[in-house]
Amino acid sequence: MKFGVVIFPGSNCDYDTYYVLKHMLKVETVFLFHKDTDLQNCDVIILPGGFSFGDYLRTGAIAKFSPIMKEINEFAKNGGYVMGICNGFQILCESELLPGVLTMNTSLRFQCYDVYVKVINNKSPFTSEYQFNEVLTMPIAHGEGNYFIDDDGLKALYDNDQIILKYCDQDGNITFDANPNGSVSNIAGICNKSKNVFGLMPHPERCSEQILGNTDGIRIFQSLLNNL
Amino acid sequence: MYRAKIFVKRRRTILDPQGKAIELGVKSIGISNVEDIRMDKYFELTVNENDEIVARKIVDKICDSLLANPHLEDYHFELERL
Amino acid sequence: MREPEVTFELALQHGLTEEEFERIKEILGRNPNFTELGCFSVMWSEHCSYKNSIALLKTLPRTGKRLLVQAGEENAGLVDIGDGLAIAFKIESHNHPSAVEPYQGAATGVGGILRDIFTMGARPIAALDSLRFGKPDDAKTKFLLNGVIKGIGDYGNCFGVPTVAGEVYFEESYQDNCLVNVMAVGVVRVDRIAKAVAKGKGNPVFIVGSATGRDGIHGATFASEELTEESETKRSNVQVGDPFAEKLLLEATLEVIKKDLIVGIQDMGAAGIICSTSETSARGKSGMRINLDLVPLREKDMNAYEILLSESQERMLVIGKKGRESEIIETFKKWDLNCVIIGEVIEEDKLEFYKDGKLKALIPASSLVVGGGAPVYYREYEKPEYVDRLQRKDFNDLPKIEDFNKAILKLLSSPNISNKSYIYHQYDYTVGTNTVIIPGCDAAVLRIKNTNKAIAVKTDCNGRYVYLNPRRGTQIAVAESARNVACTGATPIAITNCLNFGNPYKKDIYWQFKEAIEGMSEACKIFDTPVTGGNVSFYNESNNYAVYPTPVIGMLGLIDDINFITSSYFKNDDDVILLLGKTYNEIGGSEFLKIFFDKVEGEIPDIDLYYEKRTIDTLLDLIRRGLIVSAHDVSDGGIAVALAECCVMNRKKQIGAVVNLNMDFREDFFLFSESQSRVIISVRKSDLEKVVKILKDSEIYFKEIGKVGGDRLIINDIINLSLKEIHNAYYESFEKIFG
Questions:
Q1: Beta strand pairing call for A111-119 and A135-142
Q2: Cβ-Cβ contacts under 8 Å, A61 against chain B
Q3: How many CB atoms are closer than 10 A to CB A219?
Q4: Into how many domains does chain B fold?
Q5: Domain that holds residue A40
Q6: Out of B24, B70, B72, closest to residue C240 by CB
Q7: Strand ranges (DSSP E) for chain B?
Q8: Is the pLDDT confidence value at A116 over 60?
Q9: Is the pLDDT of residue C226 over 80?
Q10: Are strands C435-437 and C491-500 parallel, antiparallel or unpaired?
Q11: Residue C632 catalytic?
């Protein structure tokens, strides 16, 4: 069992993610540099948060051309597990490994605070350790997390159970006020049709330790471990 | 009425970090004979004014006070009579 | 371009005095050429030379058992925290650039201080911002504030450093000269500390990072002048920050340090190449031979003067180990950064700069730097007339406030007191996964990975106090920041400072400066918090009005056991509330006087530094015995505001309190007095007896004042507010004004 965390130039949650995997879950974890073309036999690839290439031009737009992305594309098409957190989610959308696009928050500001998200689908390999409709607290930190997809695309997401997490209020109600960034249908995280590629805006690696006051995120990584 | 096409450009002597990073992207799609990429801004707007001189003044004012950052950017625009 | 002839007039235009010009001629044994004149003028500017402050700064306590370098020796202070680790930290101002172009000014300020930290080999783990603006209800203030916080946010967020704490104040005195001070904190392994030194004959000298353009030429001299209408014409000085390039520079720098490929490294901040080459050479008692033709340029046809003085951002000077050149170049290339050899280290104390095959400047390295040839001045001082005039003690002639519910809500919603989540929600304060106590509490706490330790950090200064009484006001700034970190459970261990003052050539300004330094010195000695370094920013004036003297203190505290971290807010029903410290009739200089009577006058609160130290030690003892549930410092707005904050500070679980205060003088003055050395603590009923005993044994004055619980804050029979009312005033006011 081996996890790989990709370092793009400008990734800044790479060490945080590595720390949780290596020191909290005690699972073998390696860094993969964006110029590499060898995935080192990893079972799970994580694209961490940050500002790859400064988020210049469009978030994720330049990172998708990094040499390693070709390999990750192959890997995902063959059923390998790939997860993108925040900027990683943006890169997965730009790379078309996930449908839709993440645009600027409706507030036009960067937003950092805890939000509530609801587990809409606990049958995915990324969320099997959660209860259906469980309400989690997770931190967000992004300027461009406003998930957009056209009506046909959204219908397909619903039809295939691809929506994994939705923003909600403390009691689990999916409301306009609970949506921090304007995402369509309060979407916080989705997966692809075959359920092996997952992207989410909140940061599970920032809520996986007791000392940080919140461990709601760690079960995402545990779910993956249990499904491998 | 005039349609204004406005270009706001960061002065050539001032660093454009975005342009530099986009250059890295261009290289990574295998093109190496491109350089000096600059990322600038383009606006269009319609002025409800029939006097060209007045219209020009209005666009100038919008550019000076809002669209262009006087510390970093210059602008120019074209007016097209509608 | 033909170089202008160097005359006395040209030297004056470069900001040099007649005396300084004569000294340059003496040092060189001839007339300087144009390039050399430029080098001396920036290096001897206030910004680089500290010429009007260094003599007084040297009187500060600058040694301690934990300090690994002395103040001024390296780019930042370095404090040993055990476990083979040290904390690098420093605060710096970027006031003038931010007043002209708030976004880029603040962004490049963050970039500069981060480079100071990682050039020491430390990975930045936190940033703090200490900001001051003019009148809150003013379009310009709103523009500046939003530009500055976006600049700080965009830079820090992209770079990946959490901005975890800070302060924002509004006073008329900062109207045309805002203050933007940024502190950065990093962690380094003691065996991987890098030095800002050049030595070893023949070692290669590299320039790495971004290309050099005509950015900020004479920025250093610009920062050393008052802001005038003319500043507008100096617009070409504006530098642009590139946090993405900085992030790459961070990774590459830490990599070459880890691989032990380099002798020394220094950030290029003010005065760019000339500053970094001269300072590293002087520290290593050596010199350099540099070929400026090799410097990667962003603009063609730059001359030697411009290349040497350019302040283009995200650049470093690296002194490599001979024989390891290709490994160094490979490492920077991996991160897509320029890395070019531009010269070598030589044994003699001289800097030789060549361009187009010609020697363009030849200067002894030591003659340019602080502690070497740079001038040192003792300025004249005189107590300004306003100080005595404003020292009144008795405010009983002021009309009494009748409606205390309204009064407390008004204070809670004032821009100086109200919660600043509008700002810190735009900063990524959780990246790095170390933030244990988030912004909004007394101080931020960050755990140190792979240890059982944590640090607490805080910036503090009440400029109004320092204006009314520079010595005591500065003591209070040190005391309050120490108390703030102690409230989290951290022992205060060292400070950095950012001294924002007016024009030092004015006697009254220099008096403020001298008094502040002496006050800081006294306080730091008593608290055993040595000064590890910092920054002086003079000339914070506009149209002849100086800002309030603002010596911002950046405090570092150490928590030895992460199991004993304490937050500021009330937590459990029935916990007992104690007030440590005595409340005196001290309303002078308070937020209350300012908000209700628009007065900035009076005698500021007294402080007994030894008593304060005892309070801090006792508080820490209680926390480490696990006897305290919450601890919150009482400061701006007094006991009433502090109690309200304790009730609503935890947004996820707000809780009320019923309090009875024995008010032995005017109620409004009692509630809003800003007497020092006070802390509100809450303890479990079952621990009360133990807590009381320890407080008595330590001779700490205290009163049991009430109980936690319910959904209202009730104080005697004069304040009765719902948590919702308090919440709305405290949390929603700031955004209404500035959003």
A1: antiparallel
A2: 25
A3: 22
A4: 1
A5: 2-227
A6: B72
A7: 2-10, 41-47, 73-81
A8: yes
A9: no
A10: unpaired
A11: no
- For residue B50, the domain's CATH number is 3.30.1280.10
| C736 contacts: CB under 8 Å, gap ≥ 6 | none
pLDDT tens for chain B, 82 residues long, are: 999 999 999 988 888 999 999 999 999 889 999 989 999 999 999 999 999 999 999 999 999 989 998 888 999 999 999 9
CB C620 within 8 A of CB C487: no
Least confident of A15-29, C60-74, C321-335: C60-74
| Contact indicator for C224, C287 with CB cutoff of 8 Å | no
Looking at residue A64, its amino acid is: K
Interface test with C, best of A7, A25, A112, A116 (most C CBs within 10 A): A112
Which amino acid belongs to residue C167?
E
C342: three-class secondary structure by DSSP: strand
Residue C214: its pLDDT value, please?
85
Please write the tens of the pLDDT for every residue from C594-604: 999 999 999 99
- For chain C, report the end-to-end CA distance as a whole number of angstroms: 49
Return the amino acid letter for C497. N
Q: What is the mean pLDDT of chain C?
A: 94
Are C376 and C54 a contacting pair, CB within 8 Å? yes
Cα angle C480, C490, C670 (rounded to 5 degrees) comes to 35
ipTM for this prediction: 0.97
**Alpha-carbon gap, residue C656 to C673, rounded angstroms:** 22
C636 pLDDT exceeds 50? yes
Indicate yes or no: pTM above 0.90. yes
Q: In this complex, how many residue pairs, one in chain B and one in chain C, have their CB atoms less than 8 Å apart?
A: 38
Nearest by Cα to C241 from C154, C160, C127: C154
C572 within 8 A of C685, measured Cβ to Cβ:
no
Mean pLDDT of chain A: 97
Contact indicator for C519, C474 with CB cutoff of 8 Å: yes
Domain that holds residue B11: 2-81
Query: C723 is written with which tokens?
Result: 């948590």
In chain C, residues with a C-beta closer than 8 Å to the C-beta of B69 are 101
On whether any CB of chain C is under 8 Å from the CB of A65, the answer is no
Q: Is A136 helix (H, G, I), strand (E, B) or coil?
A: strand
What is the count of structural domains for chain A? 1
Contact A16 C433 (CB under 8 A): yes
Token pair 């530009």 is found at C147
Q: Do B15 and C213 touch (CB under 8 A)?
A: yes
Identify the active-site residue in C47, C96, C218, C727.
Answer: C47
Confidence of residue C69 (pLDDT cuts 50, 70, 90): confident
pLDDT digits (tens, 9 = 90+) for A169-190: 999 999 999 999 999 999 999 9
Question: Residue A37: which CATH number?
Answer: 3.40.50.880
